[in-house]
Amino acid sequence: MYMESKVEIQLSTGDVMFALKVFTVLGTGLVAGVFFAFSSFVMKALARLNPPEGIAAMQLINITVINPLFMTALFGTAVVCLFLVIFSLLKFHHPASIYLLVGSLLYIVGTVGVTIAFNVPLNDALAKVAPNSPEGGELWASYLTNWTFWNHVRTVAALVATIVFAIALRLA
């Protein structure tokens, strides 16, 4: 006798929202950790190198960071945050809505927005200079200060977003 076995999985809206909240806690936390590493020791190490070496190293970092894993963490989390903004506005009566909205905006504006508006243009300018050129040396000094400042901003934004999303997860 042959019996067909069929497993059916039904996901409720609550299950999906729980999974999205977990994803945002993990995504924002992971991105905060990467940016924290740069703020706390990577940029300090690069600053100790001779300018041509520091420039060359950062140019390589800026090329290798564009990979599917990091881009998924950075921008995949932002896409989920956009969904959570919409959800929180449509379901504002839900206890976690304000936390989802605040966490999402912190991440979208403070992390991804700062990355696009400040860090990427600085990276693009650095990519255009020859490490051994006088222009490279001049740019490097300001790059270290400006890039690191904006990295601190996006680190704090991602970390606070992680905390806010963790609170929203608790309210699930």
What is the ordering of alpha helices and beta strands? Answer: HHHHH
Tell me the number of structural domains: 1
Q: What oligomeric state best describes the polypeptide chains here?
A: single chain
Query: Per the principal axes of the C-alpha atoms, what is the gross shape?
Result: elongated
Structural class: mainly alpha
Concise description?
This protein has helices spanning 13-48, 51-64, 68-90, 97-127, 134-170.
Spell out the blueprint of helices and strands.
Blueprint: H1 13-48, H2 51-64, H3 68-90, H4 97-127, H5 134-170
Helix pairs in contact: 1-3, 1-5, 2-5, 3-4, 4-5
Structure description:
With 172 residues, this protein is mainly α. It has one domain (16-170). The protein contains five helices and no strands. The protein has helices spanning 13-48, 51-64, 68-90, 97-127, 134-170. The radius of gyration is 20 Å and the shape is elongated. The model has no long low-confidence stretch (mean pLDDT 94).
